[in-house]
């Protein structure tokens, strides 16, 4: 597990590159809400949009997630715990007026960036 990158993964960098190409500016690896010790991968502060890039294995992707046979109980608890934490993070951010956008690692960065851009522009219009 220690060999797995937690920051600046290939999909994360590709997503940020595409967001920048679309003219969006953002912060990287920030806490959207100071009271919660969870960082978003990309943060649009004024629009209050937090983007999380989730790994298919670690976050239990319904399309690509797998359940290991070895030490299965441990991994099931770990992955389900990650899912529960993700749901809690989304709820806490929502209560604080933020929008959490989840991007799976298998998603096309161009398509994901387009979805994020639409969310950011919609929030900017609403908050203006």
Automatic annotation (TrEMBL):
GO terms for molecular function: endonuclease activity. CDD domains: Vsr. It holds the Pfam family Vsr. SUPFAM superfamilies: Restriction endonuclease-like. Gene3D superfamilies: VSR Endonuclease. It comes from the Bacteria. This is Very short patch repair endonuclease. It comes from Saccharothrix xinjiangensis.
């Amino acid at each position: 597990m220690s060999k797995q990158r937690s920051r600046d993964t290939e999909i994360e960098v590709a997503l940020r590159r595409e967001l920048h190409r679309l003219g969006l500016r953002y912060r990287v690896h920030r806490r959207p809400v100071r009271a919660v010790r969870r960082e978003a991968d990309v943060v649009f502060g004024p629009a209050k949009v937090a983007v999380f890039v989730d790994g298919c294995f670690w976050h239990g992707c319904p399309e690509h997630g797998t359940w290991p046979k070895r030490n299965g109980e441990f991994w099931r608890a770990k992955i389900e715990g990650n899912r529960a934490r993700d749901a809690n993070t989304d709820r806490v951010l929502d209560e604080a007026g933020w929008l959490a956008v989840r991007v799976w690692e298998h998603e096309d960065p161009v398509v994901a960036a387009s979805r994020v851009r639409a969310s950011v522009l919609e929030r900017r219009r609403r908050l203006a």
